[in-house]
Design brief:
The complex is a heterodimer of chains A (about 290) and B (about 425). In chain A, about 35% of the residues lie in helices and about 10% in strands. Chain A has about 290 residues and is of the alpha+beta class. Chain A has 2 domains: about 55 residues, 3-methyladenine DNA Glycosylase II, Chain A, domain 3 (Orthogonal Bundle); about 170 residues, Alpha-Beta Plaits. In chain A, strands 1-4 form a two-stranded antiparallel ribbon. In chain A, helix 2 packs antiparallel against helix 4. The N and C termini of chain A lie far apart (about 115 Å). The C terminus of chain A is likely disordered. The two termini of chain B are about 35 Å apart. Classes of the chains: A alpha+beta (about 290), B alpha/beta (about 425).
Chain lengths: ~290, ~425
């Protein structure tokens, strides 16, 4: 009995061993023949990238950016929005390249048409996707440019930097979490979200409206719409504001944050974020207090 | 294959077509058809006559637009229309009802037509005729058989499978002979020997009338079809009438068919025999809560509110006003929007009727798959579309969806199947267009 078992064991060990070593030889030659030679620096760069695969660099993911950087042998035109300048500097150091210092950016919602300012006239009951609502009608408030409030941008955000405010019906962007990857910009069917310079201490001034209709029509649907009156353009001493198609636009590369334009806007369409509160105006202080 | 049986609610089936008075102002959008919008040829302040050309079609797949009243152009501006957006329209203040030269207003039927095919097509184009079934595809394009193809059947759609709507039904009863002359003209333009008028068997009176009248027109016959929605969809109608199946992604001409609506046949008759441009159409105004629902002959550009007024005014508990049928129509966001060439009905729903069921989880019952007339799997397609999986959507033939809404109607979980499929369809359509360019 033992002999038979020994024989079976022997046969199996020998035959399997032979098959195994033959396969090993074949695999060795196949591996030699189809060897993929990869630059070891790609792994180094990929290790330094955040690994969020957000696509903010414009490529398919972190690995793709690493490959592109190593292939180009330069950091020109490459950036990692979530990693920021620190990551780019580390990569530059590892590869012995120069990294350009980029201004940090942030997503900005250019619509202030909350339920209070732009009251809904009809009720939307379809699927909660901006893409669909946009294909159906101009929106509950009647503004064909304004936020639809279904939250496609919030869904697109990989960094938990956005949420819908249930009171206003508008998305909120969190300054400290937004990495400016641009996913929300792509997700918005109406291109309401813009990437703007983050600014010192996160201070920003921008026209919070993209309505290009005539002033009267825009105002009918939303009381904080830009009506294209041009007062801010006149007020600006730095040529930072341009008026086109009934809509003012503040160029963030020219704006000096002097805060002169927001008070002159008749509809309060210019938003200023994270500034200290304004001192009360002189004339209001001087007004006599009546009992 | 597939199909659903929604309650018919054809409450206006016995109401005669009533001529609606000419409204004080009309708003005529320059894009009332599929294809390139027309471009206005009038300016603010111009006086126009009823039936005068006011906007010229912008290309091959486009249609001319004519004034539906006599009066002064007060503005050419963006106005709200049934698309839900403000789009360019010509607004005309009515002064009188003076018809442009050459239009025959006599009620007598003109039978003989000695024009040749090309001349008929030219006239249909000149008069701005588009498909009146709802899709508003320019009719002259459909009357020209593409090179290398041959048509042997004209199928005339008198199905009207949407609940509530009775515009085509009434038109067949009251203008049957005109429709048949229109069909003969279309047959001549297409060079076909046979025409089949498809009518659902829930309209025995229309089948009887059209059958009797068709006897005196060579090659035309009436086919009674099973009652189900969407029997009137192009591909379903061809299958039901002559048993041919149009391949996925192809047009009916591939199987030698051209489909026109009965309303279009009537418009073609008026255009060719009476020089009448498409400036009016039959619209059903209905709803369970309406006082005087009916079928109206309406000038294009009449505000919807005027139609509702004519049907007894807007009931107090109205929750929704729909442009079109209850299955494929779209809720209006403003009652000032005008009737356009594609408006087949205005339906008023009460607050009770107008809301969707609450959405709960899919229970995998598979009813959406059973009822889909195109043999798709709506539960799967909607899930793929929701997850942005466009390639799989394309493989699962999302582009074959004709948006009939049967899946959403039957879904016991109230899932927004069609909404999601439409999103997926537009995304996949964009990808396909980018790939081919």
């Amino acid at each position: 009995m033992n002999e038979i078992i020994n024989e079976i064991t022997l046969i199996s060990v020998v035959s399997l061993g032979a098959v195994g070593s033959m396969a090993a030889v074949i695999l060795y030659f196949v591996a030699q023949r189809f060897k993929v030679i990869e630059d070891p620096r790609i792994d180094v760069v990929a290790e330094l990238l955040p690994g969020a695969n957000c696509g903010g660099c414009g490529l398919a993911g972190c690995r793709a950016l690493a490959e592109a950087i190593v292939k180009a042998e330069s950091l020109e035109g490459m950036s990692c929005p979530p990693g920021g300048n620190d990551v780019m500097k580390a990569i530059a150091a590892a590869l012995g390249l120069e990294a350009a210092e980029l201004e940090p950016m942030i997503a900005v919602l250019r619509c202030a048409g909350s339920r209070e300012h732009a009251p809904p006239k009809v009720h939307y009951e379809g699927v909660m996707t901006c893409a669909f609502a946009h294909s159906l009608f101009c929106g509950e408030a009647g503004c064909p440019f304004g936020c639809l409030g279904c939250g496609d941008c919030v869904l697109a955000c990989d960094f938990d930097a956005m949420h819908m405010d249930s009171k206003t019906g508008l998305p909120v962007i969190l300054d400290d979490k937004c990495v400016a990857c641009g996913a929300c910009v792509k997700a918005c069917p109406r291109s309401i979200i813009e990437m703007r310079k983050k600014g010192k201490k996160s201070r920003r001034i921008y026209v919070s409206c993209i309505n290009r209709e005539k002033g009267g029509v825009a105002r009918k649907n939303c009381e904080v719409a830009c009506i294209g009156c041009g007062k801010c353009v006149k007020e600006c001493k730095f040529d930072a504001i341009t008026l086109e198609n009934n809509l003012a636009y503040i160029d963030f590369s020219k704006c000096t944050m002097c805060r002169k334009c927001p008070p002159v806007c008749p509809t309060n369409a210019i938003a200023e974020l994270n500034f200290p509160p304004r001192k009360p105006k002189a004339e209001t202080r001087e007004q006599p207090v009546e009992a | 294959m597939g199909g659903v049986h929604p309650p018919e609610n054809k409450i206006t089936a016995s109401r005669h077509i009533e001529e609606l008075p000419v409204p004080g102002t009309v708003t005529i959008p320059i894009s009332q058809h599929l294809g390139v919008p027309a471009s206005p040829v009038v300016a603010k302040g111009d006086r126009v006559l009823t039936g005068q050309l006011i906007a010229r079609g912008g290309g091959f797949i486009s249609a001319h637009i004519h004034s539906s009243v006599t009066g002064k152009v007060v503005k050419i501006d963006d106005m709200m229309d049934s698309s839900g957006y403000r789009r360019k329209s010509v607004v005309i203040q009515t002064e009188a009802d003076e018809w442009a030269e050459g239009i025959d207003l006599d009620a007598g039927i003109v039978r003989g037509c000695d024009l040749d095919g090309a001349a008929i097509v030219r006239k249909v184009n000149d008069m701005g005729i588009v498909g009146l079934g709802g899709a508003t595809f320019p009719s002259h394009v459909k009357l020209m058989v593409p090179k290398g193809k041959k048509a042997d059947y004209l199928i005339v759609n008198g199905v009207e499978c949407e609940p509530y709507l009775t515009a085509d039904h009434r038109l067949m009863l009251e203008k049957g002979e005109e429709i048949l002359v229109g069909i003969s003209i279309q047959m001549k333009a297409l060079g076909v020997e046979q025409a089949i008028i498809g009518i659902e068997s829930n309209k025995p009176d229309a089948i009887e009338v059209m059958g009797r009248l068709a006897a005196s027109h060579a090659g035309v016959r009436v086919e009674a079809l099973e009652v189900k929605y969407p029997q009137g969809a192009e591909k379903q109608l061809i299958k039901a009438a002559i048993g041919r199946e149009v391949p996925s992604g192809k047009l009916p001409i591939e199987v030698g068919c051209v489909v026109h609506n009965v309303g279009t046949a009537f418009a073609v008759y008026e255009a060719v025999q009476k020089n009448m441009p498409l400036i009016r159409r039959v619209v059903t105004v209905a709803g369970k809560s309406m006082n005087k629902p009916g079928n109206f002959m309406v000038r294009i550009g009449t505000p919807v509110s005027a139609l509702i007024e004519a049907a007894g005014g807007l009931p107090e508990d109205t929750g929704k006003v729909i442009n079109g049928g209850p299955m494929m129509g779209k809720a209006l966001n403003d009652l000032g929007v005008p009737v356009t060439k594609g408006t087949s009905g205005i339906l008023v729903f009460t607050e009770m009727e107008s809301h969707r069921k609450p959405v709960v989880a899919c229970i995998r019952c598979g009813r959406c798959t059973t009822v889909c007339p195109m043999g798709l799997e709506p539960y799967l397609l909607s899930a793929l579309s929701e997850k942005n999986r466009n390639e799989e959507c394309e493989q699962e033939r999302i582009m074959d969806c004709m948006e009939c809404g049967s899946c959403m109607y039957i879904c016991p979980s109230g899932r927004p199947l069609l909404d999601l499929m439409r999103v997926g369809k537009s995304r996949v359509g964009k990808i396909i267009r980018e790939r081919t360019h």
